[in-house]
Structure formats: structure tokens, C-alpha cells
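Subgroup meeting minutes
Present: P.N., E.W., G.H.
Scribe: E.W.

1. P.N. recapped why we're keeping a running log of single-chain structure predictions: easier to compare across weeks, and new members can see raw inputs and outputs side by side.
2. G.H. added today's entry (303 aa).
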Amino acid sequence: MDKQLMEDLELIGGTLKPSSLRGCDEILIEQPGFSSRIALWGGHLMSFIPSGEDDLLFQSENFAGDSRFSRIHMGVPVCWPWFGAHEKNTDLPAHGLARYFRWQLAEAGHFKNGDVKIQLKLASEQHPLIEEMWTNSFELRLVLRLGDGFEVNFSAANLSDNSVTISEALHTYFKVGNSEETQITGLDGVSYQDKFAGVEAKQRGSIQPCTELDRVYLDAPKTSLILDPVLNRQLTVYQEGAASTVVWNPGEKRAKARTDLNDEEYLDFVCVESANALSNAYLLEPGSIHQLKMKVSWEKLTT
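Output recorded in log:
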């Protein structure tokens, strides 16, 4: 990392923790109003802790091995250029390539209102293994805005001569006090595909409990709410450039069957993902850019 970037990072209260995850550096940011961790492995926003509060994001204690494609359930993984299993080649890793490679810090600074700005970049040409697995050249950028809450602005540029079909998600793990008591609102009346049950249905009312769920809500609204009575807070999740919302939690039985999640950790999170999945996949033309944005704010629940 060049000297100017290191100086810019220091000016926003940032330090570097070398080779801390999969041999890649972490960025640690301390501000009066929050602290945050960002992993260059996978471009993960790992943690965002408002001062005096619990983390808004969940991090599993189970690292499930040290191989490149071992999953870690944490923060905001970037799933791109496919969501879920690859349609044609099941040997390729689930949820795409972006979350398994080292990203570069491209910018550290402030927005005009004082919010912290971190920009990360992943270019396919810098990773020969990516070019072997995905032959269409691309450049991804992730702009993080950190302040009272956080924003993730993800953009993907198709640098190849081919049109490519893209499905994607910001696979966000939100920390909750107890997923069995947590409630999600804002999706009433929206049709979804239940991947656990293998059926299509329409949401009726709110989602509670938030366990044993794998639902892709198609043509979803821009805003969802997570109501957490245990941590006494409401999280508002706003999305742009995303036609789908995915809600996931493995539940007790599936969590115990997994080797990459501790048995009781399903109680500590719910995934509410800003996505373009299944029939909401889209065609990214040569030379074009698609943006996917998620904004998360929080407030105390009123009693």
C-alpha cells in the first residue's frame, strides 16, 4: 500500500492489521461515533459498532478451514457474478468469486458531511485464477460510507466484449439478540420462492420467528425493517438497484448439520440481503456498469 493511502487512512482514524484474515490485511477504523472493521479478503465490511451499542453485523466464530473457498459467515459478503450455486459448473464456489479474493484499498477519506469513505477495488486481470474461472474481464468497486449508520455502494463494470448474465447479493448478516424473537416487516404481499420447502408463496404479514428461512422475495420493495426486542433496536435496510430481497437463517437443525457455523449461532443473526436473484438476474452488456446500493440505519425501539 502506498504512502499516501496510509496517510489518508490515518487521517480517518484507520489502521492496518496485516495479514489477519486469509493472509490479507484488515482495516480498523476508530471514530468517536463508531468503530468498524473491513477485510480486504473478499471486500467484507465485517463489523460496524455504534458507540455504546452492540455490533450491527454478525461474525461467526467458526472459520471452517483456511482454504481460499472456505466460507466465513460474517458482515457483508459480496456475492457476484452468480448467487447460490453456479448453474452449469457445481465445482465453482457458491455465491460467485468476489468474496474469495483479495481486494485493494483504492481510497480513504471523508464525504462532505464528515462521514468516513472507504473505496475498495477488485479487478479480474490482477488474479489469474479468476480469469481461469470466469473468462469475462471485469472491475468491481465497493464504496463504504460510515457514519450514524453505514452504506454499501457496489458497482460492477463489464470490461469484456460479451454480454453476461449476472445474479448477485450483498449477503448481509445482521446481528440480533435472538432470531426466534426477531421480526422482519416490509415484505407483506410480496411473492417469494422458498428454497427450503421448494415452493412459491406470498408473504402474509411480518416474518417471525426469523429461523429456518431461505426465501428469495422477487420484485421486492426498497425498504425492510428488522425489529429486535432483545437488543431493543430497529434496523432499517434500504436498497437501490436490487429487485430481490433474500431472507436466510438455517434454523437449529440445519445449523447443527453445517461444519461452517457453530450449533447455536443461528440464534445470533438473520440475513436480509439486497439482491438480484433467480428471475431478477439481469444482462450486463459490454462496457456497461451496474450499481447495487444498501443503506442501513438504526434506532432504539419505542416502548
